[in-house]
């Protein structure tokens, strides 16, 4: 555990991906075979299910320390993490237990079916035999996540640096089907259990934000214009009856989108296509917020599949029956794509990205501004004879986003964040004027710098009304410009409106609370009341 | 008996007609220790513990009117017997004991119960009323022993050296810096920033012996610093000076580093919970040792700590003060660092 504990300490302190990778490589160099397999298991979300309920752990901690529940909760809200709170509160260890990670994991798996009393015995013995940091890790191994910013991609890059094996190949290897008890570490990373030829992706072609006036792009005839979508850019690889979905971050996300896999299974051809994974319901695109609920789940439940169905808007085709066609002009690739998709009746949730017809550049601005109405982010402009570039290349593809809507609002509540943000007030609630008072319109937690958050936290500490609990009501004084992607009437909200995807655009230090918007002004932003 | 009252200017001793660590200008101020939130400018007359005198003069100006007393050396002011007792917080830090007609009040200022082998160790004093700080007044704050802490920091420096990195510790110039010096004594050559260097000279002016350090000159040679230990004030995190240091690995030393979220908030390579304040168990033991009938809780987790004391049968109330703003220290650090 000591070695693993050092790894976690090294990873969690840094926000530099390279330092995390170096720490992982150091660990891999020294760790026993079985522990290495467990590292991969833990950091790819394949952890075994929780053997001990958190409520029991909480109860045992209070029993040992003798602290009242309110004091425990007060401490918890200060730390922001239950496993850590317990680890910090417990008395000093009385002895020292040293076992490799794999033994701890096997013991925890064996603990699951046991009685609460046996569980208590085991956990209390571990608590009194581990140092603070090890105790914290033990609690984390029982359940919950580490929240230390090791993505599958980071892990794969570390494995690649350690072994010299191609990162995407490793991604396929670790995501593929393998059982910790019947594979060796070497066989796993060598990919003995997979066929990488079937999954190998291409690098994505990426666009820059438009930085010139439209007429400077030349003849409108030479450009293909499509809507830009705010989902997950994805590459679907279908070769030899195997289907793989790669995200733009080069993670394999196949298992998260079973409805895309089953749709692809109906095709006879082999191909690699590029497109956008979107939450799609009743032929309408939902917001990214909705799609997010589907992501990074171990299992996608039937309920989830019904509530937030996912579809795919196809942008491009990169490989056609074994042939790499990325250097062909876009018009050719588009024709190929249309042929492919016309080869059979498409399910409703697989759509080709619509080409917007226009004659003059001047028509586009109005089209872009209406994009928000159906949750598009704006427009994509693509040169018709462009190849499918590797990575980001300036000139052939441009993205032209809609401007966000904004209001000025005052902060009235603040709450501490979690993980790295648990020490500061990072989640805020904002209000605008209504009659003589204020009414809540949005919650937002992104858009500020660490320095600004530190300053706001200090303000909250000085101006908070409550003394206990996680939420602080503060003096309405700090004004922020809030940006959002859409607004609609809503009777579920006290203000009568719902903002979509609100975030903090900037802190308006130049404005006082008298200058914020009124709810009437906010409502005027609604163009299409439903 | 009402010996002290809490006013807008600070803690006021009614019969003595003086203030304890006032935050607004007054005629007569008794000062617990040299930190900026306790020892402020603008008092007509200062009374402090002997080892604090050079520190106060260094920070507040050589021309202040100041008198000092040794620990346990009583002085009568308007009929109130005043004495200083070790608080173990920083060099020269004292609890202020007031006695009037047999009634005793003790004000802790800031204190640390564990012996750091640098400051005179904390001494518990029996009293009727106890005014205590509560900076780390939550049961999640329990410090490692000095030996464990030292081991962790040593290991970190050795690991840095094996990766050819220079170890930079960030800690307040009064207190924390000397603590780090003591903890790192003998590991390797230590360099300190000028703000710390000047304060060290002031401390040594009272005849106290500090571990040997070298002044970090702005025109340093990189090869001189490589793999060595450097101590600077936290205000310099992100500064040009820090960026100039070759292959620096930085660590913040502060009690707040006990929490992972705090360690990860700052872009540093390590965080060590080195604190000059009492931890939860330290606060509890100090309170119990006084056998006080009433405990007033100042800066920190005052609401939580005083609620808990009441629950376990020790009458307590929270008091609003202007202490505990480590930011004020930060401002001062910046001033001294510039």
UniProtKB/TrEMBL annotation, chain A:
Transmembrane segments: none annotated. Residues 303-434 form the ATP-dependent DNA ligase family profile domain. InterPro entries: ATP-dep_DNA_ligase (IPR050191), ATP_dep_DNA_lig_pp_1105_fam (IPR026333), DNA_ligase_ATP-dep_C (IPR012309), DNA_ligase_ATP-dep_cent (IPR012310), DNA_ligase_ATP-dep_CS (IPR016059), DNA_ligase_ATP-dep_N (IPR012308), DNA_ligase_N_sf (IPR036599), NA-bd_OB-fold (IPR012340). One of its GO terms (biological process) is DNA recombination. The keyword Metal-binding applies. Its EC number is 6.5.1.1. It comes from the Bacteria. Keywords: ATP-binding, Cell cycle, Cell division, DNA damage, DNA recombination, DNA repair, DNA replication, Ligase, Magnesium, Metal-binding, Nucleotide-binding. One of its GO terms (molecular function) is metal ion binding. The keyword DNA damage applies. It catalyses: ATP + (deoxyribonucleotide)n-3'-hydroxyl + 5'-phospho-(deoxyribonucleotide)m = (deoxyribonucleotide)n+m + AMP + diphosphate. Coiled coil: none annotated. Signal peptide: none annotated. This is DNA ligase (ATP).
TrEMBL record, chain B:
InterPro entries: MBL, RibonucZ/Hydroxyglut_hydro, Xnuc_lig_assoc. One of its GO terms (molecular function) is RNA endonuclease activity. Its EC number is 3.1.-.-. It comes from the Bacteria. Gene3D superfamilies: Ribonuclease Z/Hydroxyacylglutathione hydrolase-like. The keyword Lyase does not apply. Coiled coil: none annotated. Keywords: Exonuclease, Hydrolase, Ligase, Nuclease. NCBIfam families: Xnuc_lig_assoc. This is Ligase-associated DNA damage response exonuclease. It comes from Gelidibacter maritimus.
């Amino acid at each position: 555990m000591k070695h693993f504990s050092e790894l976690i300490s090294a990873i969690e302190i840094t926000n530099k991906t390279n330092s995390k990778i170096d720490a992982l490589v150091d660990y891999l160099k020294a760790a026993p075979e079985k522990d290495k397999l467990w590292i991969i298991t833990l950091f790819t979300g394949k952890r075994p299910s929780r053997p001990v309920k958190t409520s029991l752990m909480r109860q045992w901690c209070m029993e040992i320390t003798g602290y009242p529940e309110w004091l425990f909760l007060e401490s918890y809200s200060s730390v922001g993490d239950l496993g850590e709170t317990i680890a910090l509160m417990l008395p000093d260890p009385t002895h020292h237990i040293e076992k490799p990670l794999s033994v701890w994991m096997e013991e925890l798996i064996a603990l699951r079916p046991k009685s609460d009393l046996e569980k208590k015995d085991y956990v209390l013995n571990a608590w009194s035999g581990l140092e603070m940091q090890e105790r914290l890790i033990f609690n984390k191994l029982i359940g919950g996540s580490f929240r230390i910013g090791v993505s599958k991609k980071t892990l794969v890059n570390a494995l690649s640096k350690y072994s010299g094996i191609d990162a995407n190949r490793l991604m396929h290897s670790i995501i593929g089907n393998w059982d910790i008890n019947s594979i060796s570490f070497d066989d796993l990373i060598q990919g003995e259990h997979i066929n990488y030829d079937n999954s190998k992706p291409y690098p994505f072609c990426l666009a820059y934000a438009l930085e010139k006036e439209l007429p400077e792009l030349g003849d409108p005839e030479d450009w293909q214009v499509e809507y830009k979508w705010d989902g997950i850019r994805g590459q679907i690889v279908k070769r030899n009856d195997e289907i793989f979905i790669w995200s733009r971050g080069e993670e394999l996300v196949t298992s998260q989108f079973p409805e895309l896999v089953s749709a692809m299974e109906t095709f006879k051809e082999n191909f690699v296509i590029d497109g956008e994974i979107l939450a799609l319901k009743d032929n309408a695109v939902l917001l990214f917020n909705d799609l997010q609920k589907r992501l990074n789940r171990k299992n996608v439940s039937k309920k989830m599949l019904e509530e937030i169905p996912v579809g795919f808007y196809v942008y491009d085709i990169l490989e056609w029956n074994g042939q790499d066609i990325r250097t062909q002009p876009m018009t050719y690739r588009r024709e190929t794509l249309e042929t492919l998709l016309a080869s059979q009746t498409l399910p409703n949730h697989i759509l080709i990205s619509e080409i917007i017809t226009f004659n003059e550049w001047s028509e586009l601005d109005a089209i872009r501004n209406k994009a928000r109405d159906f949750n598009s982010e704006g427009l994509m402009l693509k040169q018709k004879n462009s190849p499918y570039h590797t990575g980001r290349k300036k000139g052939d593809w441009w993205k032209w986003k809609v401007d966000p809507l904004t209001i000025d609002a005052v902060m009235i509540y603040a709450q501490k964040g979690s993980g790295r943000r648990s020490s500061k007030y990072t989640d805020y609630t904002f209000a605008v004027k209504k009659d003589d008072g204020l009414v809540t319109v949005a919650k937002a937690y992104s858009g500020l710098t660490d320095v600004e958050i530190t300053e706001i936290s200090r303000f909250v500490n000085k101006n908070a009304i409550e003394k206990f609990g996680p939420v602080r009501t503060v003096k309405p004084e700090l004004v922020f410009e809030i940006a959002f992607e859409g607004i609609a009437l809503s009777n579920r909200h006290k203000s009568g409106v719902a903002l979509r995807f609100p975030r903090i655009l900037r802190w308006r230090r130049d404005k006082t609370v008298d200058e914020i918007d009124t709810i009437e002004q906010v409502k005027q932003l609604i163009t299409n009341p439903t | 008996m009402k010996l002290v009252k809490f006013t807008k200017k600070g803690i006021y001793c009614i019969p003595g007609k003086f203030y304890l660590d006032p935050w607004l200008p007054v005629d007569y101020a008794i000062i617990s220790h040299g930190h900026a939130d306790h020892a402020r400018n603008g008092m007509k007359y200062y009374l402090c513990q002997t080892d604090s005198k050079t520190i106060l003069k260094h920070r507040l100006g050589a021309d202040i009117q100041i008198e000092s007393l040794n620990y346990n050396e009583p002085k009568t002011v308007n009929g109130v017997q005043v004495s200083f007792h070790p608080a173990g917080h920083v060099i020269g830090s004292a609890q202020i004991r007031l006695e009037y007609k047999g009634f005793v009040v003790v004000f802790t200022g800031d204190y640390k119960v564990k012996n750091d082998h640098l400051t005179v160790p904390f001494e518990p004093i029996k009293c009727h009323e106890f005014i205590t700080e509560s900076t780390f007044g939550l049961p999640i704050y329990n410090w490692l022993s000095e030996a464990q802490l030292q081991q962790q920091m040593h290991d970190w420096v050795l690991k840095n050296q094996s990766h050819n990195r220079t170890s930079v510790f960030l800690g307040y110039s009064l207190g924390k810096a000397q603590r780090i010096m003591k903890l790192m004594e003998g590991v390797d050559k230590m360099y300190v920033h000028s703000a710390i260097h000047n304060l060290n000279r002031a401390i040594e002016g009272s005849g106290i012996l500090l571990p040997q350090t070298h002044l970090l000159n702005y025109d340093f040679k990189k090869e001189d610093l490589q793999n060595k230990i450097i101590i600077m004030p936290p205000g310099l995190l992100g500064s040009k000076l820090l960026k100039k240091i070759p292959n620096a690995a930085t660590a913040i030393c502060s009690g707040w580093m006990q929490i992972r979220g705090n360690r990860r908030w700052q872009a540093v390579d390590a965080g060590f919970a080195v604190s000059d304040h009492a931890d939860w168990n330290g606060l509890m033991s100090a309170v119990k040792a006084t056998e006080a009938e009433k405990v007033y809780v100042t800066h920190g987790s005052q609401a939580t700590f005083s609620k808990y004391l009441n629950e376990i049968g020790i009458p307590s109330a929270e008091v609003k003060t202007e202490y505990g703003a480590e930011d004020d220290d930060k401002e001062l650090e910046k001033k001294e660092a510039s």
